[in-house]
Every structure is written in C-alpha cells, then in structure tokens.
Write a structure and sequence with these properties.
single chain; alpha+beta; 17 strands
Length: 327
C-alpha cells in the first residue's frame, strides 16, 4: 500500500436540493489505497457523494467528511488536495498537452524545474511523452482523458476522484482505457473513488463496489460478492441479467439465477422442461431465450459454437448453489 494514501470517511452525509433529497444520510469508509466504485443509475446519489468528498458540494448540517484524522468538512476543494477526472476532460484548449498538465502546479507555485520534471514524469506514466507539445484539439478522446488523468496526478493528490470519465468514449476505446486506468491505480495504490453507471467498468476497476439506489447505499462489497451474492433484486438486476425460475401460488417471484448458471440439455436428462423461443449471437457466446412456462422466458448463455435453434425442446436445471433468493 502507498504509505501516503489516506482513508476517507463520510459520517451522516446527506444532501437536499430545494425540496428533493438527493442523498440520504450516508456513512461510508474508503480504505487507504483502495479503489471504491460508486455504482448506480442516474439520480441515485453517486455523483453527489463524489462532489461531497471533493468539496465541490457541501453536505447538510451535521454531516462530516474526514481524511484520516483530519476533518475537512468545511474546506473547499482547493484545500483538500484531491485530484478530479471528469467525463468532459475540462482541459484548456489554448494550452498544449504539457502546459495543461503543468497548470495546477503553476497555480500552486511549484518551482519551474520541479514543475517540468513532474510533468515529464506524469506524461511518461500515461504514455504521452511524445505528444507533450501537441495542441489539445489535435488529440483523440482517449488521449484527452489521459492528459486529464496526468494533470490530476501531477499535484500528487491524497485522493483521486473520477466522475464517469469514460462515458463519452466509444466502446473499444473505453475498454482499452479502462484497462490502462486499472493498471495505473494498482501501480500507484492511491485512494480513489470512481463513479459509473456501467457495471462492467465497476467490476473491472473496483476493489469494492458501493451500489446506490434512490440516494441510499444498498450494498458495499467486493465485485465477486456483489455479483454472486447480491443483497436485493435491484442489485442483482443492476449488475447483470437475472432470471426468475420459480414463483409462488400467487405468481410472485421466489427464486432467481444468472444466465450462465442454467445447465441445459437437448435430451431429458434434467427434470425441468422447456423450449427455445429465440437465440441471439453475441460473438464468443449466444444467449438463448427459453420458455419454461412462466410469464417471461429465461435467458441462458451458451458457447457460440454449440448448436441450438428456435423451437427446440430442452431440459434444464440450475448449477449447484446458483439460486438467488431475496426477502
């Protein structure tokens, strides 16, 4: 762990906007050196939480924000020593790459020699050394985001904050930059909070994931536990597809499962029966829709090279310990 990394603690942090409560009273600890992902749909309170940590937003009276044993609740963003990376880059178009990275250091009064050395260090870290003198308008979206990341890191922040930084990028570039950011965060071991509504992004980057719903924290755990042991149907549905496989006498859902946890056969080796109503080719896999006699067909993931077709009768069961149940 980075010995300079800090623990971020929120105590009773809530936020009202006019008559709307954007964030219910929240207690949250981000461990020193970990990447915590705030995951949830639009309007769930994740960006408000991030802005409270940064100092861009204040929490309601009584809430507190601590960095280690330092109460920073009343401090503005410029005195909290945080770095921020935004979706829209927030770069200066009149400055080149190196000047953008150096800007915050210049404002802080860092001496020129140290400033230039730190800019070179940061550009090397994000693989942009060769583009130091390039104009911002000549960069791709991925390059702009790496400049923004280098600028945030140049000031050596105690906490690094990401507000949906990859949302504006195309899918292929988003996947590549996600890997780069993940590797960089592990290398630096800096305390980081990352906001996204993309569950794949959350799984790939988070040491832990905090799932939020309507201004409340509904589950915080490792990516594996969030996916395999979701605390509620909302969490299960938000971080991946789920199937209802059993209902009670009133038709209320009782048991659920993931699409990859259904065992399927073209003969009658399994007890439960159904038939395929549709198949979608997804490249490495295919997703089958299977009518099992309930209101909604279940989804089953199989290898793309397996031969299944609409109208085919099948038998099925669940893998051991695969059933999900919610109170």
């Amino acid at each position: 762990m980075n010995p300079a990394a800090v623990t971020v603690t929120l105590r009773g942090c809530a936020r009202h906007f006019n008559h709307h409560q954007a964030l219910q009273p929240l207690d949250l600890t981000v461990h020193a050196g970990e990447t915590l992902v705030l995951l949830g749909p639009s309007g769930c309170g994740k960006t408000t939480t991030l802005r409270i940590i940064s100092g861009l937003e204040s929490c309601d009276v009584g809430g507190e924000v601590w960095f280690d044993d330092r109460n920073v609740t009343a401090l503005p963003i410029e005195k909290r020593n945080v770095g921020m990376v935004f979706q829209n880059y927030a770069l200066f178009p009149n400055l080149n790459v190196a000047e953008n990275v150096a800007y915050g250091l210049k404002v802080q009064g860092v001496a020129r020699a140290e400033r230039e050395a730190r800019v070179q260090e940061m550009l090397a870290l994000v693989d942009l050394t060769a583009l130091a003198q390039r104009s911002i308008d000549k960069l791709s979206g991925g390059q702009k985001q790496r400049v923004a990341l280098a600028r945030a890191l140049a000031a050596r922040p105690k906490v690094l904050l990401f507000d949906e930084p990859l949302a504006a990028l195309d899918a292929r570039l988003r996947d590549r930059l996600r890997l780069e950011i993940g590797a960089l965060l592990k290398k630096l071991a800096i305390t980081a909070v990352y906001v996204t509504h993309d569950q794949q992004e959350a799984m790939a980057l988070g040491d832990r994931i905090a799932v939020m719903e309507q201004g409340r924290l509904v589950q915080i755990d490792t990516p594996q536990n969030i996916y395999q042991r979701p605390a509620s149907k909302f969490v299960a549905d938000f971080v991946g597809a789920i199937n209802c496989v059993d209902v009670d006498t009133r038709g209320n859902p009782q048991r659920f499962c993931r699409p990859e946890d259904v065992l399927l056969a073209s003969d009658d080796r399994y007890q439960r029966q159904g038939f395929i109503v549709a198949s979608t080719f997804l490249g490495a896999s295919q997703r089958l829709m299977i009518d099992i006699g309930l209101a909604t067909p279940i989804q089953v993931d199989r290898h793309a090279r397996e031969a299944w077709h609409a109208g085919q009768a099948v038998s099925w069961t669940l893998a051991q310990d695969a059933a999900l149940q919610f109170s």
